[in-house]
Amino acid sequence: MAATLTLVLLLAVYYSHRYAWWKKAVPYHHPRILMYHMISPPVKGAKFNSLRVSPQQFEQQLSFLHHHGWSFYTLSELIQNKSSLPEKSVAITFDDGYEDNLTNALPLLKKYQAKATIYLVVDRHQREWSSKRKKKNNTHELRNEPKLQDTQINELLHSGLIEIGSHTLTHDNLPLLDEIRKTQEISDSRKQLQETFAIPCEAFCYPFGLYDETDLKLVKSSGYTSATTVEKGISDLRNADPFQLKRITISGKDNFYAFRLKLKTGKRGIKK
């Protein structure tokens, strides 16, 4: 009996730490910014399956948001309307520009009339950028993942549900670059996206969430109106620096309970 009670207590402590179910909800007048990468099934033995949210998971999440009164916005719309957003406002964001954002995500976005912002790497094809953060990540897995073609991006834009933001020219590690290269990555990427697709490009996302004070100043001076990080959490949009916005990380390894908790508090557990 004592052993059973001990086991129950240990499990309770484990789940309390893992899911932090007891944490109070962040007020729902603070909009949620969700961070995705790929909408695709997991690949057996792959290193980056946390970046792969299956279409089934994504639909379950969209259905929950739709049926529980969440209003969908692009990131730039959040910024434009930050003083008058309704409770339960949400912006879906996708990093990098994977082809499945069109083939798998767009049909589901259309089904639930959900908007999204795609942070696009301009020079994205056959490029291995994961090693720019850690050399051991150079597995070529992300390099080989199909990326969006320009014609496909036009199809996304034509849907009326998608905003294109910049994720730099090459997804480099910004703090390691000199100022000339920083400017190319940050400012020139915006210019190229605007010229290629005849759109305003107002939203920026720091590759790997890494940036320094120079990067921050360059983003502000390049004409963007917002920038997102990978810091986990929920920003008070009315008071937060719009160029250092937190996001809720949506992982392919999370269950639906974790998704709901993240929507509530910004994190699955105490730290994640």
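The above is record 1. Record 2 follows with the same two-line structure.
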Amino acid sequence: MKRPRRVRWLWLLAALAAIVAVAFAACDGDDDGDGVVSGDRIQGGELTLATIEGDALDPHFSSFASDISLQRMIWRGLYTLDASNEPQPSMAASLPDISEDGKTYTITLRDGLQWSDGDDLLAEDFVMGILRTCNPDNAGEYQYVLTNIAGCDDHFGNDDGFDEALENLVGVQAIDDTTIEITIAEPQPTFTIILSLWMTFPAPVHLFPNSGDAWPDPGPSAPGQLAFNGPYILTAYTPGDSAVLEPNPNWAAPNGISPTLDKVTLRFIDDEAVSTNAYRTGEVDFTNVDLAQLSAIKSDFEPTGEYVRVLFPGTVGLQMQLTHPVLGDPDTGLDVRLALRRSIDEFTENEVCFDGGRVPTTSWIPEVSGGHPPDAFEDVIGFNPDAARAHLEAAGFPDGEGFPTLSILVRDSPSNICVAEFLQEGFRTILNIETTIEVVDGPTRSARFTAEDFELFPGGWIQDYPDPENWVLGLAETGGSLNNYNCSDPEIDALVEQARFNTNNEERLQQYKQINELIVTRVCGIGVGLHLANDYLIKPFTVGLAENARGLDAVIAGDWIAEAWGVSE
């Protein structure tokens, strides 16, 4: 059973290498190497893209890919990651000047930056973006990424909320209109990468002068209340329906690439079966594929080049709320969690619900991201009905007797509903326990996960930046801001503290591998099951989506560089 899985993973790695090689080769015509722009791209035109509606417009709060996909179309930070995942200047004029002790970053902005409304984009706006993420009243889901900024944790962790004195101690300041100084507590090899992420995007101080000022919720009036510094501006927003983007007249074009489209319409469609049908009928020019019909889609669209698959570091499984008295019981909870995980046949789930479009795994961190091979923990958490029943009996629930009815929370799409029904049937037939299924829309699912209002939640993680710490920090340590399943393990916490600022890179990477093993084998919030791939349908007249599709994508192909999108003749 292990050997076929290992062979398949090696094949997929080879495919990924081929995709990356093609992407790099296609970049030869782009002076900066930051993204592919075809000579066929014309001035003008429109695109309509199917996507998932997010939960918030606020980059200093958000954590879901659907939010982030839109946010980096309309805002950009000091740096961006290129096709090699290396940080490059964006709103900054150059890479940071770092002090000898590695603790002070001095960053100079590009000349002449402006917000979309014409106001000057200044150093204070980038300072405000970081302060908003550190502000406990804003409760930024990604604050944990900024924990090394001096004073950020002290402010964020203040139980009484915003405190001006504590905010003044956060280690970020504007030296002048174009110079930012950031002080970190310990040298951090990944800190410049972090300055490319959305939680450090600038905030328009001229509109929101205080770090606790609330940004508008997604709605019709939201576009007029905001200013933007990305390639596009948000001109319309209709909840549950669509958002409209138009080119930003004040886009700085740091990579030499500017939008050519007149308009981009984002259609909010939770159900990939619906969006796939909309693609077939010409209503949308792009969609994520309904994996329940992947074979038919590949048959219809692979010959035309419209079907695109991009492998990327992402892992999903069954997330479990450890505040639940049964799932998180300090004495018997591990046996319960192992019983649930070992009753899930991830190979069959992949074929039934995703038409083979994912990769069965027993590792949280993918091997390419510094984790373990997919079959590494097969003997501990892999599908095994006898072991699953034995674990449930050891927890005090022989043959499911006395086990409570748990709820599975999923987004309203065929593949997600299929997963829930597959899990439900497996739990019933193997463990003799019952579950219910709650089907909700995308924003509700996101909000409930953030509020920790769930029991069982099929979901997972997509890598934000290329380092194994991104799979651990905030997600696995006690009290982490994205640890919505409430994993709490003293051994994991100790290793996180050792690895977080360890400048011995070989040792640091080994510590993250140890953490990966503990997360998996102790089912610390997630029963790992599948690695991911993005499967897209993209109309042949589009430019810049398929060419720039890679692991940096959040939801839409090439959404890390939306300014490269366009249409051909």
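Residues 311-532 form a domain with the Dipeptide-binding Protein; domain 3 fold (CATH 3.10.105.10).
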